[in-house]
C-alpha cells in the first residue's frame, strides 16, 4: 500500500487514507509524513485486526461518515477486515467504484475452524458479488483460490502483482550496517532470516522449531526474524541460542540485504513483499510451498520450496538449500524478479482500473 501511495499520479488522483495508527509500522508512518500535503490521512483506531464487534461497529460508522463527507469516486479497500467494513460502508453510500485487494484471503488460514472458514467464504462471496467492482489478486494462486471457492466469476478478479521499486545508489548506501557485528555472529556462520509480522499466519513457531532442530545438529547457522507482532514475546522466549529477533524499523529492515538466505514459514500468503525484496538483493529464498509462494520461486534459479509439514523430519532440505545457495548466481536471482514484479506495471494496471 505504501508503494501505491508513493507512486500514484497526484495530478490525477486526490487521495484520502483511513488507517489505524496502532496497526501500522514505521515505514507506513514515514510514508504518510513524506506525502504530507499530497494525501489526507484519517485515523480510525477502531479498525482492529481481531474480531471485535464493539470496535468493528464503531469503525464501520466512522468509515460511513467519512465516505459521506468526502463523496469519493473510488474506494480501494485493503486486507480482510477493512475489506469487509469498507465495502459495506462504501456500498451503502452508493460509491460507483469499489476495489478490493485481500492480500491473502482469511479463509485460507489454518488457524480458523471449518465453521469460521465457511463463514469467511460466505462473507467474501456476498461482498464480491454485491459490493465490489473488481478484486485485485496479488498472485494467480490467490485468484485460483477465489475461483475454487466460487467467490466470484473470472472477470471480477484481476491479478496485479506487487511491484518492487528499483534499487538506487542511495538505497544501496543506506544498507551498510553490519548485522554480524551487531549480533556478534561469526563470519563463518550462515545467516538465514525472515522479515514479517510475528503473527499466526506467518507460523513463527515453525521458524523456531526449525532453528531448534538445526541447532541440535550444527552451530554454524544463525536464524534472524525482523518484525513485530502479538506472538513475538511468546516465540522469543522459546527460541534457541542461534535465533535472534529484531524489532521492525527502517534501519533493521536494511539488514535484510545481509542475509545469506531468506526463509518463510507462512501458512498462506497473497504475494509477500519481503521474499521479493530478498531476491532483488540477490539473496536466494527457501519458502513454504503455499499459496503466494509458488509464483515467486523458480526452482534451482532463485530458491526452493519445501513442505512445511515435513521440514522438521527432512531438515536435510534446509542444509541442502544452504549448500546450493552458496554457489547460486546472484545476477540470475535478481533478474528473476526485475521484470515480473515491476512497480511501474503495478501502478499502471491499478491506475487504469481506477480510470475505466
Automatic annotation (TrEMBL):
Signal peptide: none annotated. Residues 47-163 form the Glycosyltransferase subfamily 4-like N-terminal domain. InterPro entries: Glyco_trans_1, Glyco_trans_4-like_N, Glycosyltransferase_grp1. GO terms for molecular function: glycosyltransferase activity. Pfam families: Glyco_transf_4, Glycos_transf_1. Coiled coil: none annotated. Residues 176-311 form the Glycosyl transferase family domain. This is Group 1 glycosyltransferase. The lineage of its organism: Bacteria, Bacillati, Bacillota, Bacilli, Lactobacillales.
Amino acid at each position: 500500500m505504501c508503494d501505491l501511495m508513493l507512486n500514484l499520479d497526484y495530478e490525477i488522483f486526490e487521495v484520502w487514507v483511513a488507517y489505524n495508527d496502532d496497526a501500522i509500522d514505521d515505514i507506513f508512518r514515514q510514508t504518510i509524513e513524506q506525502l504530507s500535503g499530497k494525501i489526507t490521512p484519517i485515523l480510525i483506531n477502531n479498525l482492529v485486526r481481531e474480531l471485535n464487534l464493539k470496535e468493528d461497529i464503531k469503525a464501520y460508522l466512522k468509515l460511513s461518515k467519512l465516505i459521506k463527507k468526502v463523496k469519493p469516486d473510488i474506494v480501494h479497500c485493503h486486507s480482510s477486515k477493512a475489506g469487509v467494513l469498507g465495502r459495506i460502508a462504501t456500498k451503502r453510500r452508493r460509491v460507483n467504484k469499489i476495489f478490493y485487494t485481500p492480500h491473502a484471503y482469511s479463509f485460507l488460514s489454518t488457524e480458523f475452524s471449518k465453521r469460521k472458514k465457511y463463514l469467511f467464504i460466505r462473507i467474501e462471496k456476498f461482498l464480491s458479488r454485491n459490493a465490489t467492482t473488481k478484486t485485485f489478486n496479488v498472485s494467480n494462486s490467490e485468484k485460483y483460490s477465489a475461483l475454487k471457492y466460487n467467490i466470484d466469476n473470472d472477470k471480477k478478479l484481476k491479478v496485479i502483482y506487487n511491484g518492487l521499486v528499483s534499487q538506487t545508489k542511495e538505497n544501496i548506501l543506506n544498507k551498510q550496517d553490519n548485522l554480524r557485528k551487531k549480533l556478534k555472529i561469526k563470519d563463518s556462520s550462515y545467516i538465514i532470516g525472515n522479515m514479517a509480522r510475528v503473527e499466526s499466519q506467518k507460523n513463527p513457531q515453525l521458524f523456531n522449531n526449525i532453528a531448534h532442530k538445526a541447532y541440535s545438529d550444527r552451530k554454524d547457522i544463525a536464524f534472524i526474524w525482523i518484525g513485530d507482532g502479538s506472538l513475538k514475546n511468546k516465540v522469543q522466549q522459546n527460541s534457541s541460542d542461534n535465533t535472534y529477533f529484531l524489532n521492525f524499523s527502517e534501519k533493521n529492515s536494511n539488514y535484510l540485504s545481509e542475509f545469506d538466505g531468506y526463509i518463510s514459514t507462512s501458512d498462506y500468503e497473497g504475494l509477500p513483499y519481503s521474499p521479493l525484496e530478498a531476491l532483488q538483493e540477490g539473496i536466494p529464498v527457501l519458502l513454504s510451498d503455499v499459496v503466494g509462494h509458488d509464483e515467486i520461486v523458480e526452482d534451482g534459479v532463485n530458491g526452493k520450496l519445501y513442505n512445511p509439514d515435513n521440514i522438521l523430519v527432512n531438515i536435510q532440505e534446509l542444509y541442502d538449500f544452504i549448500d546450493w545457495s552458496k554457489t547460486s548466481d546472484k545476477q540470475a536471482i535478481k533478474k528473476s524478479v526485475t521484470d515480473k514484479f515491476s512497480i511501474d506495471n503495478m501502478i499502471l494496471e491499478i491506475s487504469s482500473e481506477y480510470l475505466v
